[in-house]
Amino acid sequence: NKSFANISMAVIRRLPKYHRYLKELLDKEIYRISSKELSRLIGFTASQIRQDLNCFGGFGQQGYGYNVEELYNEIGKILGLDKTYKLIIIGAGNLGQAIANYTSFEKSGFELLALFDINPKLIGMKIRDIPFRDVDELEQFTLDNHVDIAVVCTPKEFAQGIVDKLNEKNVKGIWNFAPTDLKVPKDIIVENVHLSESLFTLSYLLNEREIENNKQE
Ligand code: NAI
């Protein structure tokens, strides 16, 4: 197993986008691309692309460009997408169910085992054959089943209490949607997703443009 621990987080955050565009190229049976063309497609500068891809060995060849398939596979490996992961969702309301209904994660190797909720009305139901379970069963379930990732979709006031029931022996990562910063043992990795941060960035940009436009009038 190669280690990519020295790649900066800024590069890592760009890799999923490369991965997505390279997949689109492969689907169109395009097997070779220059950094310039890739730049036009993705919107990063050609020099940024060369720099990013050089971080892990540089697949480009002068005058040839990049081998799309090789690059796609290598980025997939760096992102750990050559492996499979078992997921559970905790908090099976609007958001939890939306994620459970989304089938594309499975195609990338993320298999949902169960949804956990406190609401007795939900328990026993299924989404795509995946059962809703009582949150009281959470600890035992994670001991009996190999779980890699817990997806936290409860109201924020319950999120920490739930996470406290998990430890590095029963989950490795937490994909946190609750708008709160979770405290976890050091061996558990948390990745937060906050749609509002992205939305507020958009509102900033809209306002910024309005100010610019007003200046020009
Ligand atoms: P919801 O109210 O539809 O669902 C919450 C679910 O959690 C309910 O089914 C409830 O029974 C369950 N629940 C409550 N306490 C629990 C516990 N102790 N153990 C297990 N389950 C429990 O709410 P919605 O809209 O699905 O939002 C869920 C969370 O996601 C909220 O914290 C919300 O703020 C957050 N959210 C985050 C977004 C993001 O971008 N990160 C976007 C939308 C929502």
Short summary:
Modulates transcription in response to changes in cellular NADH/NAD(+) redox state. By secondary structure, this protein is α/β, with parallel strands linked by helices.
Blueprint (SSEs and pairs):
Elements: H1 9-27, E1 32-33, H2 35-42, H3 46-54, E2 66-67, H4 68-78, E3 85-90, H5 94-101, H6 104-107, E4 110-117, E5 126-127, E6 130-134, H7 138-144, E7 149-152, H8 156-163, E8 173-176, E9 189-192, H9 195-216
Parallel strand pairs: 3-4, 3-7, 4-6, 7-8, 8-9
Antiparallel strand pairs: 1-2, 5-6
Helix pairs in contact: 1-4, 2-3
The protein binds 1,4-dihydronicotinamide adenine dinucleotide.
Family: Belongs to the transcriptional regulatory Rex family.
Subunit structure: Homodimer.
DNA-binding region: 17-56
The topology string of helices and strands comes to HEHHEHEHHEEEHEHEEH
Please report the total strand number as a whole number. 9
User: Largest beta sheet, briefly?
Assistant: 7 strands, mixed
CATH C-level class of the largest domain is: Alpha Beta
Average of per-residue pLDDT values:
91
Uncertain parts:
none
How would you portray this structure in words?
NAD(+) binds at residues 91-96. It is found in: Cytoplasm. Modulates transcription in response to changes in cellular NADH/NAD(+) redox state. InterPro entries: CoA-bd (IPR003781), Rex_DNA-bd_C_dom (IPR009718), Tscrpt_rep_Rex (IPR022876). The protein has 217 residues and is an alpha/beta fold. The chain has 2 domains: 9-78, Winged helix-like DNA-binding domain superfamily/Winged helix DNA-binding domain (Arc Repressor Mutant, subunit A); 85-196, Rossmann fold (3-Layer(aba) Sandwich). It has 9 helices and 9 strands. The chain has helices at 9-27, 35-42, 46-54, 68-78, 94-101, 104-107, 138-144, 156-163, 195-216, and strands at 32-33, 66-67, 85-90, 110-117, 126-127, 130-134, 149-152, 173-176, 189-192. The strands form 2 sheets. It has a 7-stranded mixed sheet, with helices on both faces. The chain has a two-stranded antiparallel ribbon with strand order 1-2. A hairpin with a 2-residue loop joins β5 and β6 (130-134). α2 packs across α3. It is globular. 23% of the residues are buried. Residues 90-96, 116-119, 135, 153-156, 158, 162, 177-179, 193-195 line the site of 1,4-dihydronicotinamide adenine dinucleotide (NAI).
